[in-house]
């Protein structure tokens, strides 16, 4: 007869052997030991738990949930089981059920750091930043030397506008493991933001930016294939005026898992003169980026190149006014144009070795259609002073684009100017904001470019040609007005885009543009007080 004590000892030994293999990453051997236990005792909750953990590690979350729930019918639920269940439910797209499981785990074991950390990650994804921070804080109180949780909390602290605290977390994580390339890159991003805040506080040294570049240097030294770090380092160089180094680094976007453009099968162009070959510039990224960098197409044409610009169909009519440039909207159109070489549009300044000093400052390189100009001149009429306004860059979430959005209420300073009519150039859901402001009667809405998928900006370009001024958040309207040579003011947040550079209210990109920046208080009211004062000067 089998001795139960011996049998129990054997199963405990098998579990320990399985755990040893599991911790060593030897999953097959671990599963063999767990399987032996379950073969002898199908109701062994410990073995079911460990098999569930393996299933989740291998992406089999549904199987993991089933095994964990089965285990918890055999023994009273344990904190570790509920913690694993919460993780798996979250991966199955059930965050509310996941939070319930994690709260139960914490109730059973308030000192289970992993449960607090998992709860924090789910709350972060749900946009509940303050609650998430509380859970991260508790997790790190219980287990202070966890690089993963320091990194995750650091990212959240960045998101809620606490870069100094984020930097502390990244520094602690790096102290624990100096070879975390992604954390070095995160550190570079925070230092860049802190440099911009320093500038907003009136400091003029670039120490933070130099430190940020050094952090990215370390990141790419640790991990050569971290192309996002190269590109981010390039943006800092561009912001600080090193366009040669900046555009070289920014070219690493071609190596992203999801590149910002679709490569052609033909050879890439590197700037050499190619007699008998066309140069195809492949448009990329957003509408504003395309407008901004389209200036390089006629510049290359003027140098004697046969230049083709490949763009999305809706952009073709507007860009057809570029001098000396052929516009195509489908790569199939290139079949009859070979031989050719191609280049991503935003790599043109790299090939041309463009600097802020050598960037051509043409007053305008795009024009509106005369017939549309005449149409909108009649429709808009002759108000004393017409200001076009845009307040939302879209993306009402937690992205950088959302940081560029401005509450429409801030534009009241312009509405209060005597003899001013505001013309809404805004598109999309944000137009509804007009109904909620007290000065809505001072804002005129127009039906320009009603289709979001066809003939981008044709009407808007004609409208802008009839305005005395455009005032906008950092969005494509700014680039359109600048490319048309029309007066335009852009209001940018403290953490601004690289293209607006540092400590200047003008831009090498557009002679007709003025930049108005938030100060360290990060409020829009003072910005628009300055904008209204500047607009008032134009009224005189």
Q: Could you please describe the fold and organization of this structure?
A:
It is a single chain. Mean pLDDT is 93; it is low at 1-6. It is built from 24 helices and ten strands. The chain is an alpha/beta fold and 540 residues long. β2 (306-310), α17 (316-319) and β3 (325-328) form a beta-alpha-beta unit. The protein is 50% helix and 9% strand. It starts with a helix and ends with a helix. It folds into four domains: 4-171, Tetratricopeptide repeat domain (Serine Threonine Protein Phosphatase 5, Tetratricopeptide repeat, Alpha Horseshoe); 172-259, Alpha Horseshoe (Serine Threonine Protein Phosphatase 5, Tetratricopeptide repeat), CATH 1.25.40; 278-351; 370-539, Rossmann fold, CATH 3.40.50. The chain is globular, with a radius of gyration of 29 Å. α12 (207-222) packs antiparallel against α13 (227-239).
What's a quick, concise take on this entry?
With 540 residues, this protein is α/β, with parallel strands linked by helices. Helix content is 50%, strand content 9%.
Write the layout of secondary structure elements.
Blueprint: H1 4-23, H2 27-40, H3 45-57, H4 61-74, H5 79-91, H6 95-108, H7 113-125, H8 129-142, H9 147-159, H10 163-176, H11 181-200, H12 207-222, H13 227-239, H14 243-250, E1 278-282, H15 287-293, H16 296-302, E2 306-310, H17 316-319, E3 325-328, E4 340-344, H18 348-351, H19 370-380, E5 385-390, H20 400-403, H21 412-415, E6 420-424, E7 443-445, H22 458-465, E8 469-473, H23 476-483, E9 488-492, E10 513-517, H24 524-539
Parallel strand pairs: 1-2, 1-4, 2-3, 5-6, 5-8, 6-7, 8-9, 9-10
Helix pairs in contact: 1-2, 2-3, 3-4, 4-5, 5-6, 5-7, 6-7, 7-8, 8-9, 9-10, 10-11, 11-12, 11-13, 12-13, 13-14, 15-23, 19-22
